[in-house]
Design goal:
Helix content is 23%, strand content 37%. The chain contains nine helices and 21 strands.
Length: 440
């Protein structure tokens, strides 16, 4: 058995034919122009090490040296894929299934006829979405993994919520990682286009089929026109050998409302980048997060909300429960530009450590150039409070059950913000299971 080349070498091999194609092309427009820009950015970017401030506590060097195959075709049958889908109530949802980045039509189903679903590979590369949409929101100038995704991803999905339309059923995107044959590097790419006055719920769920090593590098761009409302959920259930670096970047216009809820419950190394630009008056953004790094799992949440126009509002609440030798990072930034007067922005991060070996590095940040604003941020980290434990024990509740009740109540502030009942029930069952296993 020959040794696989490193991930960096695999990426370089994927870039070579792309460079050749671009050199032959006489007219670089649309998707090819975007990929050319990504290639130019890659020449000036380095993969992060511990010396990079934004990646100081999240080491990825071992992943980069691992031998991965980039988005290999799966050998699983449609029936086998269906068996490995997470136990989620999707009977009343628009379902799109992807295995190793490849669309599985047999396991997908669209119920709402007013939802426009288009696949990148089926579109003219000079189509308007490539000229004016894809690659114009998520930063390829500063984020190397976003630039890699932009350059080498071969598949992608474009979701359009038409003007003044309400998508009745949630849109559920399953991203399954199958590493049964070889270690797999996956490049999901999504663009969510919410036109003016539209409403929809999008759920991205990432899981792995086997316990083999997989690495997902996902990018989702979100565009909200005036008065658009979008609820977006990102749920991570990948196995302990699976790593994930994902970026969600939203750009909002006047009177739009965007809610993002990120739930990270399992994995090896997880990095979530959430960036929101409030580029219109009366924009509203909610950022909710919950994470549970047990075992040796590492979960890093980096968020940034940029208030660019007056009278906007943002509210961020991230909570974590850490056990064993689990580690977490929270880095939340709020920017209020000089023109963005009358801004209200709030940020809170709270963590409970169940073990003396668990640790979290938190860094809430505010950068304010306006003088008529209301902004606050805060962070707390500590062990479970003994006073309520004593109260529950005095009422005859066993210690393990009392601890589970308190931890679940701690998570409740985030969970109660999940509007889709089936999603909330699904996540609650996972949390119960993790707490039960940890108590054992």
């Amino acid at each position: 058995m020959t040794e696989q080349t490193s991930l960096i070498e695999q990426i370089e091999e994927q870039l070579e034919p792309l460079v050749a194609d671009l050199e032959k092309a006489q007219d670089l427009t649309g998707l090819y122009q975007t990929k050319q820009l990504a290639l130019a950015c890659l020449e000036n970017l380095e993969f992060p090490t511990s010396k990079h401030e934004e990646w100081k506590y999240t080491p990825v060097s071992a992943l980069l040296e691992t031998g991965f195959q980039i988005e290999p075709e799966t050998t699983l049958s449609p029936e086998k894929i269906q068996e490995n889908l997470p136990d989620f109530d999707d009977s009343k949802a628009n379902v799109l299934v992807f295995v190793n980045g490849h669309f599985s039509a047999e396991n997908s189903n669209i119920q709402d006829t007013n939802l426009e679903v288009r696949h990148f590979k089926d579109l003219d590369f000079n189509a308007d979405i490539f000229t004016n949409r894809v690659g114009k929101i998520a930063s390829i100038e500063q984020e190397i993994f976003t630039a890699v995704n932009t350059a080498i991803s071969k598949n992608g999905i474009y979701l359009k919520i038409p003007k003044n339309q309400v998508i009745e059923h949630p849109v559920l995107l399953y991203f399954l990682a199958d590493g049964s044959d070889k270690s797999t590097f996956i490049q999901p790419r999504n663009f969510i286009d919410s036109e003016s006055g539209s409403q929809a719920t999008i759920i991205e769920l990432f899981s792995s089929i086997t316990d083999s090593q997989t690495f997902t590098n996902a990018v989702t761009e979100v565009r909200l026109e005036n008065n658009a409302v979008l609820d977006h959920y990102k749920i991570q259930l990948e196995g302990v050998e699976s790593s994930h670096i994902g970026t969600v970047h939203a750009h909002q216009y006047q009177d739009s409302k965007f809610t993002n809820t990120t739930i990270s419950l399992d994995g090896n190394i997880i990095r979530n980048n959430l960036n929101i630009n409030l580029d219109g008056e009366n924009c509203t953004a909610y950022m909710n997060g919950f994470y549970m790094p047990f075992g040796t799992t590492h979960i890093d949440n980096h968020t940034a909300v940029d208030h660019l126009q007056p009278n906007s509002y943002s509210n961020e609440l991230y909570k974590g429960i850490l056990g064993d030798t689990g580690t977490a990072v929270f880095n939340g930034k709020i920017f209020v530009r000089q023109y963005a007067q009358k801004t209200n922005a709030f940020q809170s991060n709270k963590n409970i450590l169940l073990s003396s070996e668990a640790s979290v590095n938190a860094k809430p940040q505010l950068e304010i150039w306006a003088d008529d604003v209301k902004c606050s941020h805060g962070c707390t980290t500590g062990a479970l409070d003994e006073d309520p434990m004593f109260y529950l024990r005095s009422r005859g509740i066993p210690e393990l059950e009392a601890r589970k009740l308190l931890l679940f109540a701690f998570a409740g502030d985030v969970l109660e913000r999940i509007k889709v009942e089936s999603v909330r029930t699904f996540i609650e069952s996972w949390i119960h299971q993790k707490l039960d296993n940890y108590n054992e």
